[in-house]
Hints:
Layout: E1 6-11, E2 23-29, E3 32-39, H1 47-51, H2 56-64, H3 71-86, H4 94-123, H5 127-147, H6 169-191, H7 195-201, H8 209-215, H9 220-224, H10 231-234, H11 255-282, E4 301-309, E5 312-320, E6 329-333, H12 335-340, H13 343-347, H14 352-362, H15 366-370
Antiparallel strand pairs: 1-2, 2-3, 4-5, 5-6
Helix pairs in contact: 2-3, 3-4, 4-5, 4-11, 4-14, 5-6, 6-11
Amino acid sequence: MFDVHEMEVNFGPQHPSTHGVLRVLLKIDGERIIEAKPVIGYLHRGTEKLFEHMAYPQCIPHTDRMDYVASATNNLGFVETVEKLMGVTKQIPRRAQILRVILSELQRISSHLLWLATHAIDIGAMTPFFYCFREREQILDFFEAYCGARLTLNCMRIGGMPEDVPAGWLEDIEAFCDKFDAAVDEYESLLTTNRIWKRRTVGIGVLSPEEAIEWGITGPPLRGSGVEWDLRRAQPYEIYPELDFEVPVGKNGDTYDRYLVRMEEMRQSNRILKQCIPLIRETPAGDLKAKISKVIRPPEGEVYHSIESPKGELGYYIVSDGKTQNAYRCHVRPPSFVNLQALPAMARGHLVSDLVALIGTIDIVLGEVDR
């Protein structure tokens, strides 16, 4: 009479809280999760194989389609990897490096705003959704003013940047930065001490530092477990060594701590932007591209390079045969794919309703998971 009655239930792939075509095969006893198995592959487009059949510059728009809410960082990881393969990393003009950082940090804020909006509405808080989109729309306006696109940006080039900043662009970003910290305070006033929010997030999906490292987790989920690892600090690139910012970490490794880490990361990105604007004004206008051949044909060899995307370590592994204008082999190490593998461990023993919070706290994008 009191035995466990297991039942298998499909959560997704058509479910609003999975944020894409993710299917989670649940084994439950009543509302309690015994086992949660992610089933992926519904969005597979063969991106890596496409990279191997296109010239290196033609691959940049395809990086946009992986984490399609963080296109700028996807672009940055790819072009830096090709530059490393070519041996021209030190030739990138300083103005281009600063502009890359500005776009990357705007993208980090934009990505975190979308995460917060959807994470909150999944759990039942509707107001933050509208507040977050208010600032995110301004950032998308900045992207549109720079490169003509709002989502899939294609905003970086091998060897530098495609265009200089438009007139008034830096002033608009400066005005945004002056107000953004107050906007983050406003988001926190809605959620951080809200007793319903805390009941839905505190103690949910706890990952110890050791477990997080064993799973290969990176980004905010790793830092939420108390591990201070950020590639902008650990393996710095572009002008990050010159910038003053902190790497926020959590203590308990639960959904609430991961929320707090991302909130502080937005403040730190804003801090970086405030430092970059005077730096780019000091550099000569128009100095944006290294003097490299228009035909990209790296020497024979292989390289792996990674950057800190909004979701964690985004790495590209590229093999060049030294003869053709396209990669012999290209493999992507996306943070969403790696972080998702911890979901079964995080979900075990929790309620089905907590699964929504757990998927949100990992912050996955299925274009990056399936590639």
